[in-house]
Amino acid sequence: MATCTLGDLLDVVGGPALRLHTAPAGPGVPVTEAVLYDAHAPLPRLPGALLLAVGVPAAEAGPLVRAAAEAGLTGVVVRGVDGPVGEAEAHGVALLSVAEDAAWHQVHLLLASAIGARPAVASDTGLGDLFALADAIAAGVGGATAIEDPRQRILAYSTVPGQPVDEDRRQGILGLQVPASAENTEQYRRLFAADRPVRLPALSGSGLPRLAMPVRAGGETLGSVWVVDDGSLAPDAEDTLAQGASTAALLLLRARAARELARHRGTDLLRRLLDGTADAATAAQRLGVDGPARVAAFVLDSAASVPDAERTALRLLDVVRLQCEARYGRHACVLLDGVVYAVIPGPGERHKRLAEDIVGRAGQALRVPVRAALGEVAADAGGLADSRADADLVLRILDATRPVATVDEVRPRVTLLRLAEVMGERRELAAGAWRRVLAYDAEHGTEYARTLVCWFDAGCDMAGAAKLLAVHPNTCRYRLRQLQQHAGVDLDDPDERLVLWLQLRTLAGLSGATP
């Protein structure tokens, strides 16, 4: 199991909760535990530990920093921002801080939870520890035990032989969910209003009573622990259960920290994969991308008025992730510059239908129109950066009449858009007669450029061009003759016709459609 590093810790609890002021040894230095400073005891030699400067004002923590360095500690955490940065840098010790009003016991619990998450093992949910805890509580209390989350989902249960159980427990374990009922709802109301173990009656004639205890940390309810009470529980069952609930809180916090860190690392890895800066094979293995896949991009309609666009984009990320996970399980989604990208596995037959469904659901939930673009299906993860580039181009041509599209459906428009970018960047591709045509129109108030584009779009058919322009065919002929005379355009040269059409369509943005 890999050791937590300072960088891992900051990934989980960094920001307002924990600020880094200096890290002379870098973010890769190991962090093994968090310990509380005791002014009345010698400082222990704990290489890799973070020392919480309890009772020491930040401005007076210089001697403690020096002592921490001598003891081989990784860093010191002070309360307030005016800590001894210079001392920390001089002695090679990391200096971090928490808010002035932070409670040290809550800081200790938070850091211990994050350090214990062991972020390198992203798949470790901590459930194995919860099962072991359920067995320990069951053995100490003397009754079959179950640990639940706040939604009454069973996370772990004991397997101590010989302990009585009832049908409610059997059904709950089979479905990993407590059966819903009005009586259950009332019991949970009583339980979550208490701060000590609660004795609850049986819910049916054949059932057994329960001894239950809420699981909390820092005022937040994390779940509950339930013990089947057949009348033979240990005399100190309530105290044992209370201690077990405290341990459960720590394990649940560690599991949550591990999940959050795994998601953070997965997000960063996906971002680099879509940027083309990550090793595709490694990223595919860690993200669970196996075989063909494509990138779908979702964005809020730029024309809509969104009071808090950043928050709404995060809600869009949640909607996309939820819908993708409902269909594909573990899923790779990321929010980048206001765009939500999702890697959708499979050959692609149902991808557009999924995108349309997400756009509909997101539009209803967020009350903002949403657009979705799908890049080309890539054979493996190595092609996802190109698929993302396709999706970005498609996003630029979506509108209310076409809110969802795959790159294959709009390939001509996407190609012209890309050509416009390439031609605009190259001097030799942007030069030519098209500029003279536009300049003449601007100076004389004529419509030669649009006439020329309509003639090209009509396949060089005069009647077709006249219909697009809503003028007589003779007017078109006159304009084209004048164009050749005043702008020096040779319309008999097929190469010049092609280049003129491309430049006017892409660089000037003209088309034969009715304006």
Salient structural properties:
single chain, 515 residues, alpha/beta, 5-stranded mixed β-sheet, 5-stranded antiparallel β-sheet, 15% strand, elongated
Structural overview:
This protein has about 525 residues and is an alpha/beta fold. Helices cover about 45% and strands about 15% of the residues. The strands form three sheets. The chain has a five-stranded mixed beta sheet with strand order 1-5-4-3-2, with helices on both faces. A five-stranded antiparallel beta sheet has the order 7-6-10-9-8, sandwiched between helices. A hairpin with a 2-residue loop joins strand 9 and strand 10. Helix 16 packs across helix 19 and helix 17 packs across helix 18. It is elongated, with a radius of gyration of 33 Å. About 0% of the residues have low confidence.
List the helices and strands and how they pair.
Layout lengths: L5 H8 L5 E4 L10 E4 L12 E4 L9 H9 L4 E5 L5 H7 L2 E5 L5 H13 L10 H15 L3 E4 L5 E4 L9 H9 L6 H11 L5 E3 L9 E8 L2 E9 L8 H39 L4 H8 L5 E8 L8 H20 L4 E4 L2 E7 L5 H16 L3 E5 L9 H12 L8 E3 L4 H15 L1 H4 L2 H12 L3 H10 L4 H8 L3 H15 L6 H13 L9
Parallel strand pairs: 2-3, 3-4, 4-5, 14-15
Antiparallel strand pairs: 1-5, 6-7, 6-10, 8-9, 9-10, 11-13, 11-14, 12-13
Helix pairs in contact: 1-4, 4-8, 5-8, 8-9, 10-11, 13-19, 16-17, 16-18, 16-19, 17-18
